[in-house]
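Hypothesis: this fold can be encoded by more than one sequence.
Test: take the structure tokens below, design a sequence, compare later.
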């Protein structure tokens, strides 16, 4: 099953896919003239491409490798992650996405710097803290994506996974650094279509082989009755739902894409489209994984399930399409995260803090070099997976917990509650992030978290601590300046003459 003999038709289909993606990357390079083009695609993206890119950037190796593998391992119960994710999109639709598009900057730290600007440096200290936390959390996330790429290469070619991890890292760094956001979003559109078509077409074909869903369900239940019921505890279900829900509502790589859309109406339409994409793909992945458990009940690594289906079940064309979908899932997220992480280092730290007079050429190359640097760092984690865990999906959940805990409350409260202060917002980010790290270490490495609490996902204490710290610190410090509120609240203006009274 691993290192299968691949037909020329199979390999040719995969090669054509990569050539198309690299061609789009070059097209993005030719259209990128300045930093705004590179980071937000000139704000020209419409609802269809926008919805597809929101889907593709979220549905990473965690979906077609990790989620597939967890369904293979645990059954249907893991499907509850999707309602949590969709709830996060609804929260974003109501409380975050339109407001951030109206704000209309480039990165999430741009928001942090503007809303939490009362730090004695016009928001630059707040910006730097936000950017550093993004880089740290997304380093973990990129390690999961590269791990997924290594699994695919190992299964296709029989190579050591480390070779695939390195190959995926170099490929992603190259085409992301040259093409920027326009290339990223256009490739995401192609990749979302490939993912949806691959899983939908594979579904009836796979189940036809074994006599339909009823037969699969009966065989699956014979392994373990919980496979068709609920193999996860209530705490685990709530934790997974919360991790993905809080994370997607505040994910910097999704908000950067929201900045790239034409207007607030486009943002709302795009979120509706992404919900359709994700419903189709999420349901199909669960069903296909159950099928694979019936057909191949003893895989040593559950993360191999989707790849083995491509190589051994679906035939050369459809199998190559599903392999391309897996590569799509990985690359569409890797390019999104690399752009955001690179912008954190180049736009938010280098330009805003150290070289505000940089030319557009300097800004462009700063972003490209940053992508190169930050794209290679996750190799250390990917090649030493014991540092954060082994199964791809659980690495993804850890990252989601970090992102939700450190940004959900600072974004939502910052956009809708005038009393939040700079000290409160920054403390919320830092304490939310720190709580997730401590909780992970205390449950997965040293076991100092009480057993009765350990089943809770780190995002739950993380978001709770972030909220409480923000409220307490905000009331313990002076009211925020009008200048920090005016861009977000229509009834607040900076006083005539440029004064900045704190009488809100």
């Amino acid at each position: 099953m691993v290192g299968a003999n691949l037909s020329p038709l199979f390999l040719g289909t995969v090669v054509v896919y990569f050539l198309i993606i690299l061609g789009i990357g070059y097209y993005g390079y030719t259209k990128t003239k300045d930093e705004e083009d590179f980071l937000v695609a000139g704000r020209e993206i419409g609802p269809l491409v926008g919805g597809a890119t929101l889907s593709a950037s979220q549905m990473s190796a965690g979906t077609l490798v990790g989620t597939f593998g967890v369904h293979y391992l645990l059954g249907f119960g893991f499907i509850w992650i999707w309602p949590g994710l969709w709830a996060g999109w609804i929260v974003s639709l109501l409380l975050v996405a339109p407001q951030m598009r109206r704000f209309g900057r480039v990165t999430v730290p741009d928001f942090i710097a503007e809303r939490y600007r009362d730090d004695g440096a016009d928001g630059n200290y707040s910006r730097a803290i936000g950017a550093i936390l993004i880089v740290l959390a997304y380093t973990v996330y990129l390690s999961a994506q590269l791990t997924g790429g290594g699994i695919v290469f190992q299964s296709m070619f029989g190579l050591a996974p480390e070779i695939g991890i390195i190959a995926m890292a170099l490929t992603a760094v190259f085409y992301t650094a040259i093409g920027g956001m326009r290339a990223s979003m256009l490739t995401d559109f192609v990749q979302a279509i490939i993912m949806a078509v691959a899983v939908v077409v594979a579904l009836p074909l796979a189940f036809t082989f074994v006599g339909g869903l009823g037969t699969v369900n009966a065989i699956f239940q014979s392994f373990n009755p919980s496979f068709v019921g609920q193999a996860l505890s209530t705490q685990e279900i709530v934790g997974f739902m919360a991790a993905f829900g809080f994370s997607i509502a505040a994910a910097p790589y999704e908000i950067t894409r929201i900045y790239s859309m034409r207007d607030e109406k486009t943002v709302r339409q795009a979120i509706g489209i992404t919900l359709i994409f994700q419903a189709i793909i999420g349901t199909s992945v669960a069903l296909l994984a159950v099928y694979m458990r019936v057909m191949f009940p003893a895989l040593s690594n559950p993360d191999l399930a989707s790849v083995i289906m491509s190589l051994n079940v679906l035939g050369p064309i459809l199998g190559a399409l599903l392999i391309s979908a897996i590569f799509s899932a990985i690359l569409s997220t890797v390019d999104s995260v690399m752009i955001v992480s690179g912008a954190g280092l180049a736009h938010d730290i280098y330009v805003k803090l150290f070289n505000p007079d940089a030319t557009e050429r300097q800004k462009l190359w700063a972003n490209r070099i940053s992508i190169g640097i930050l794209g290679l760092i996750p190799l250390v984690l990917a090649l030493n997976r014991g540092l954060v865990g082994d199964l791809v999906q659980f690495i993804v959940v850890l990252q989601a917990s970090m992102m939700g805990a450190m940004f959900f409350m600072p974004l939502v409260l910052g956009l809708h509650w005038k009393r939040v202060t700079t000290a409160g917002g920054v403390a919320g980010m830092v304490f939310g992030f720190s709580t997730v790290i401590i909780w992970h270490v205390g449950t997965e490495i040293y076991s100092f978290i009480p057993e009765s609490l350990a089943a809770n996902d780190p995002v739950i204490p993380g978001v709770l601590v972030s909220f409480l710290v923000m409220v307490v610190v905000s009331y313990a410090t002076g009211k925020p300046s009008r200048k920090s509120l005016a861009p977000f609240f229509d009834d607040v203006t900076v006083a005539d003459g440029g004064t900045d009274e704190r009488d809100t």
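The domain at 8-489 is CATH 1.20.1730.10 (Sodium/glucose cotransporter). The radius of gyration is 22 Å.
Hypothesis status: open.
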